[in-house]
Amino acid sequence: MVVKVYGSDYASAKRVMVCLAEKNIQYELIPVDITKGENKDPVYLKLQPFGSTPVIQDGDYTLYESRAIIRYYAEKYKSQGTELFGKTIEERGLVEQWLEVEAHNFQPPLYTMVIQILFSSKMGFTPDQNLIQECEEKLAKVLDIYEERLSTSKYLAGDFFSLADLSHLPFTQYLVGKCEKEYMIKNRKHVSAWWDDISNRPSWKKIRELPLYK
Ligand SMILES: N[C@@H](CCC(=O)N[C@@H](CS)C(=O)NCC(=O)O)C(=O)O
């Protein structure tokens, strides 16, 4: 059965799509255009009552929150495609730790920067340069900790690619691309090598080049 991914051409749906690609799971993207308010449609709100994307439907099973979805598929198809949780319970613990770091330390300042730099005009407000600067400083401190970690292991959770690395792909792509802040990655030798490695995985190259429905 083909998994249905309801989402838009934004980062959180791509987090799910790249996970499905690593696991060789077929999916169909059902466009939900948030710029047209389709995520607030009563029919969509029955699937995701908070009105954000993505949501998956796998048969009669429905799940939202991108990180919950990727954890679900990494566990459900443990032995199919790339092993994304590591092999031991200790490795799993480290994958979970870095997934939490991504969600609570890395993503918040970067998310604010992305909204301010890329989406402010669409959303009808002027970017706040002080806020962007503040977020950049916060993110730089987080990346300094990544630099230290990645000087002793190839990937975040150890010497294996995992869900923790994967979860960083969509928003870091905004940072190095449309936000024009690639120097934040390139100026850190180990972070830069890590980014070159994970962003060149065939799964991510496929997702980031998708025209989706734009
Ligand atoms: N914690 C949620 C966040 C999802 C999220 O922020 N989605 C954005 C697109 S990247 C969205 O749908 N925004 C519209 C809205 O929430 O109203 C997840 O990881 O799934």
UniProtKB/TrEMBL annotation:
<protein>
    <recommendedName>
        <fullName>glutathione transferase</fullName>
        <ecNumber>2.5.1.18</ecNumber>
    </recommendedName>
</protein>
<comment type="similarity">
    <text>Belongs to the GST superfamily. Phi family.</text>
</comment>
<dbReference type="Pfam" id="PF02798">
    <property type="entry name" value="GST_N"/>
</dbReference>
<feature type="domain" description="GST N-terminal">
    <location>
        <begin position="1"/>
        <end position="81"/>
    </location>
</feature>
<dbReference type="InterPro" id="IPR004046">
    <property type="entry name" value="GST_C"/>
</dbReference>
<dbReference type="InterPro" id="IPR036249">
    <property type="entry name" value="Thioredoxin-like_sf"/>
</dbReference>
<dbReference type="GO" id="GO:0006749">
    <property type="term" value="P:glutathione metabolic process"/>
</dbReference>
<dbReference type="InterPro" id="IPR040079">
    <property type="entry name" value="Glutathione_S-Trfase"/>
</dbReference>
<dbReference type="InterPro" id="IPR034347">
    <property type="entry name" value="GST_Phi_C"/>
</dbReference>
<dbReference type="InterPro" id="IPR004045">
    <property type="entry name" value="Glutathione_S-Trfase_N"/>
</dbReference>
<dbReference type="GO" id="GO:0009407">
    <property type="term" value="P:toxin catabolic process"/>
</dbReference>
<keyword id="KW-0808">Transferase</keyword>
<dbReference type="GO" id="GO:0043295">
    <property type="term" value="F:glutathione binding"/>
</dbReference>
<dbReference type="Pfam" id="PF00043">
    <property type="entry name" value="GST_C"/>
</dbReference>
<dbReference type="GO" id="GO:0004364">
    <property type="term" value="F:glutathione transferase activity"/>
</dbReference>
<dbReference type="InterPro" id="IPR036282">
    <property type="entry name" value="Glutathione-S-Trfase_C_sf"/>
</dbReference>
<feature type="domain" description="GST C-terminal">
    <location>
        <begin position="88"/>
        <end position="214"/>
    </location>
</feature>
<dbReference type="InterPro" id="IPR010987">
    <property type="entry name" value="Glutathione-S-Trfase_C-like"/>
</dbReference>
<dbReference type="GO" id="GO:0005737">
    <property type="term" value="C:cytoplasm"/>
</dbReference>
